[in-house]
Amino acid sequence: MLVVINPVAGGGRSLSLLPGLIKTLSESGHVCTVVTTTGRGSASDYVKKLGRGSDTVVCAGGDGTANEVISGLMQIDEAHRPKFGYIPCGSTNDFAVALGIPKKPRENIATIIRGSSVPIDVGSFNGRYFASVCAFGAFTNVSFSTSQTAKNLFGMLAYLAKGMELLRELRPIRARFVINGEQIEDDFCFCAISNSRVLGGVLRIKDELVELNDGLFEIILIRYAEDALGFSKIIAAIANGGLECEHIRVFHANTVEVTMADDEPVDFSLDGECEKGVRSARIVNIRSGIRVITDGEK
Question: Largest CB tally within 10 Å, which of 14, 120, 157, 188?
């Protein structure tokens, strides 16, 4: 096993798990190589260099670290690609929630030792990989604009506080999409191209709308509302998870093309990590890109 630790995730919680984690894995017969991340991109680099000779790559960190590990896995040829075990130690952990991965480390480690895995789709955003969601608009830059100190101290409260601050700055984003041959152009306040039941720790999609290994994204486009009544309808539709509102359209597609209609660059969030200054993107679903160790029934 290659074990990748983000030492600052969750206020250092991942690092505190390390002695017990390695002891348990070693006692169960696994030979472990342990690395700690040193900055952006380091997790992906470790996996590319060391992952090919491993049966499993275990990540202890937040969704951003998981995103980097998955990016590294996708750069290993499929025949030698290790399974992925995730120990969520971040502030929101949408990826773990969507997959039913246990929150308690002891249960999680036991699941990883059993090694039962399921295939899930992976997304490619102009060649950059993501596991759960790429998005722009309302709340999508909350994660990368909230300080790590605030995340560690206040968890979800930090995200909500930052979200309320950014809501005052909400503006329409003119964008053009091509989805299943249909061209859609409008002013949007939010767009998500996802393979998850939970987005940003806030938006939850009904289970019947999502399948994590069907080769299709769930695409949510929310048109900018001109008045308070329109926004209240949007909030109500998000709250019940059904997304039924005249301002919201939901699609299922393998490939999405998006262009900023005013040619003004927009920042996207990929699994909570910032992709700056995007003018156009081609987003492709890679079916069964990785195998994730989890409770298959969940």
Answer: 14
